[in-house]
């Protein structure tokens, strides 16, 4: 995937109405892109400054998100080479993140977890 596509994916993932800090949203957007195969292990991410400009957030916020993902073992920082994807997140962890995102979104609209469970059960 090229850097512009990754930036577009992450830009669409930020929600200024989301109560979570922007660095968490940015980390989740990158995590989802890796889990979905939009960014493969071995790929380099665009520079943090480019990501920050595209997402209209501070470069330090992007760096905080990247450090979080490095601590999770998803990214590697190399001086002079930028940030490289090491591995994909565990599929269960990725699904749990999607579930948390769904519950957060439902909560912002006034729906509790019980209602979401009912919706899921009705989809069977």
Automatic annotation (TrEMBL):
Keywords: DNA-binding, Transcription, Transcription regulation. The keyword Transcription applies. InterPro entries: Tscrpt_reg_HTH_GntR, WH-like_DNA-bd_sf, WH_DNA-bd_sf. Pfam families: GntR. Transmembrane segments: none annotated. It comes from the Bacteria. GO terms for molecular function: DNA binding; DNA-binding transcription factor activity. Residues 20-88 form the HTH gntR-type domain. This is Transcriptional regulator, GntR family.
